[in-house]
Design a protein that fits this description.
Largest sheet: 8 strands, antiparallel
Number of strands: 16
Number of helices: 10
Length: 517
């Protein structure tokens, strides 16, 4: 089934040259701050269809044509990852190839980073400012690299970022990962909104994956033939609210060299690739003896223990640990409780309007794709993005999902790994929150208590009628004690009711349920 998050841009009727906001994951590459606006992952519901056009000429797709021995290729060394090589296409993108070769030979790219990384989409770099707002061409100002239908945005394609048209190309470039498993159904859906692709392009996308909606808006000038597995590894690094990796992904060097007949590995299947999306969800990995864990004592209920994940999200874990050590949470309440959803606390004002991080201001805890909103997950509340994290947190209860529910969830514009689907079907949780909040912990003991609290009587603002008080929150070392990930007495289903997530309109509001307003 094709992934709807790329299709959500169509529903807004926005062209590739316009600012895309409020209608799904941003699909615009821009070198200006205005166009880097983070989009909501929910659909806006508006749909002015793109004017119908005829299908483009069915030219041969040339992304996978072999270079001749002696041709100029690009060799890129990425720190801690390895070597990536790509073929250039001066026959179809002459200025694009010339610009990149010249900048590479000048050492322009050496030491720069991939400053923007979006899984199932692309990795972007080449900005000396590292913000998406800098860069220049070989000639100083921007240049027009144009487009050519022989080169498309299949996985591994290399293209220039721009700020509205190919006439604004500079030094910034991106390497496509995109979606795998594109089908005829996907292209039929595109065509319903006036987006057409040649038969050759469709076949290339169905076999190799990519991001077809970018075609015609950006200058494709290269194709990776070695190190595609590295590009796919990088796309799953933990990122902040602006899609910037927490740990810099550094380009050690970029050089133009001669092709000497190296093996051409165009396709991901050509590699011994360890796909992170096939890994088990990280929420249920046990702490090591001696690791710091949180012991939260809730008045009249008992102790709840939480494992944090500094190995994935260091700032998010540090904030919670340090606030606990300072006694910040002692005496605060769970001020917002919603049955079959979550319990929220950590606000010294007790009404969802307060709180601060250990550093005083709000902070960006980011997100890691393999930490999800399973039952027992601990995450920061925010007011619109992970860059507004503070002290407020919530613990997920949610419900057990069935296959139909998860299919409807994916059709809403989200995707799930097979491991995540299995967790939501057995342990339960709330998948609609994934990708919008910083999940930094998981309850390892006392989940029964959390599920008990979610049933307390509340007022019209979801505030418990009788205060649910955090008497103390302390940090201790994990001593190897038995871990209880699940609610007892339910065969590890994670739900004390066994009910399944409904598909009604409540799900569309789930992204604001935990906002610290």
């Amino acid at each position: 089934m094709f992934k709807m998050k790329l299709l959500s841009v169509i529903l807004c009727g926005i062209t590739a040259a316009a600012l895309m906001t409020g209608c799904g994951k941003e699909l615009k590459f821009s070198e200006s701050s205005d166009a880097d606006t983070q989009m909501s992952s929910s659909e806006s519901g508006s749909s002015s269809e793109k004017e119908n056009v005829t299908a483009p000429e069915n030219v041969e797709i040339m992304n996978y044509t072999a270079p001749e021995k002696g041709d100029t290729i690009i060799e890129m060394e990425i720190k801690d990852y390895g070597t990536v090589k790509f073929r250039l296409f001066p026959e179809y993108a002459d200025k694009g190839a010339e610009n990149f070769i010249g900048l590479a030979n000048d050492g322009y790219y050496d030491g720069l980073t991939f400053h923007r990384v979006i899984s199932d989409f692309m990795i972007q770099g080449g900005d000396p400012l590292g913000t998406g707002q800098g860069g220049k061409s070989l000639w100083g100002s921007s240049f027009d690299g144009g487009t050519d239908p022989h080169l498309i945005h299949v996985a591994g394609a290399v293209a220039y970022a721009n700020s509205g048209s190919t006439a604004s190309n500079g030094s910034q470039f991106y390497i496509v990962t995109g979606e795998q498993g594109l089908t005829d159904d996907a292209f039929s859906y595109y065509e319903n909104y006036g987006y057409y692709f040649s038969e050759n392009a469709k076949e290339a996308y169905k076999q190799n994956g990519g991001t077809p909606l970018l075609d015609g808006g950006y200058t494709v000038f290269g194709q990776v033939f070695e190190g595609l597995d590295i590009i796919y590894q990088i796309q799953y690094t933990a990122t902040n609210a602006s899609d910037k990796p927490f740990d810099d992904v550094i380009i050690d060097s970029v050089r133009a060299v001669e092709y000497n007949g190296e093996e051409l590995k165009w396709h991901l299947s050509d590699y011994d690739y360890d796909d992170p999306t096939t890994h088990e969800v990280a929420n249920f990995t046990s702490p090591e003896v001696g690791d710091e864990i949180i012991n939260m004592n809730i008045k009249d209920y008992g102790e709840v223990k939480i494992r944090v994940f500094p190995e994935y999200l260091s700032d998010a874990s540090e904030n919670f640990i340090e606030l606990a050590k300072q006694g910040y949470y002692d005496g605060l309440t769970f001020h917002r409780v919603i049955n079959d959803f979550m319990i929220q606390g950590g606000d010294p004002n007790g009404n969802g309007t307060g709180g601060a991080s250990v550093w005083g201001d709000k902070f960006d805890g980011g997100k890691y794709f393999n930490l999800i909103h399973a039952a027992g997950a601990v995450a920061y509340a925010n007011s619109g993005s992970t860059a507004t994290n503070g002290s407020q947190f919530f613990i997920v209860t949610g419900e057990v999902c069935n296959d139909e529910t998860l299919e409807q969830f994916e059709a809403s514009g989200q995707t799930l790994t097979d491991s995540a689907k299995e967790v939501y079907k057995t342990v339960g949780g709330y998948p609609y929150l994934d990708g919008n909040y910083t999940v930094f912990g998981q309850v390892i003991d006392g989940l029964d208590i959390i599920f008990e609290i979610q049933n307390v009587e509340t007022d019209d603002s979801d505030k418990p009628v009788e205060d649910v008080i955090i008497e103390s929150m302390t940090v201790e070392e994990y001593d190897g004690s038995e871990i209880n990930w699940y609610v007892s007495g339910n065969n590890n289903t994670g739900s004390d009711t066994g009910t399944e997530t409904s598909s009604d309109d409540e799900s569309s509001d789930a992204k604001t349920e935990t906002d610290a307003e």
